[in-house]
Design brief:
Elements lengths: L3 H4 L2 H8 L13 E7 L4 E12 L6 E12 L2 H14 L4 H14 L48 H18 L4
Antiparallel strand pairs: 1-2, 2-3
Bound molecules: zinc ion.
Length: 175
Amino acid sequence: MPGLEDLYREIILDHYRSPRNRGELPAPPARRVEGYNPLCGDEIVLYVDVDVEGEGEAGEARVADIKIGGQGCSISQSSASMMSAAVKGKTVEEARTLIRAFKAMMSIHEHRLDGEDGDGPDADGGATAPANGAKVPLGDLEALQGVVRFPVRIKCATLSWNTLQQGLDEAAPGS
Ligand code: ZN
């Protein structure tokens, strides 16, 4: 069975055995978001607490705390654990960058995310460099890259990230 060692790297098993940030947060004020992957039966219950530091437009939204509940396969649960460790304490903007980078790594980057200035005459300028977060260092998360060789498991790995994205959209709209 070639390649299974790529799927079950030691760091993945470590996060599965000892999940980080497991638990719940009072909601409200935290956001509670559920994710479900019917292909595998994975469930994620994500609690995210976003604090805004500073006043008005200068305020910076930050992932003050995050907790993970739910159950599922080792890929889904270890990805959620790694995700929680990676975004806790980060600004919402940094967390969104990580989400984009992770989803790009998982090769399901379906939408161009550089369209914010897309109304200009250069919108079809044929940029060669991907305008996503592909160069963001992902650290331990790169251990999950082997999952792309097992397409049926990609949704296991991305479930918690899509759930986080939904939580951030609800907790910090427009950020
Ligand atoms: Zn799964």
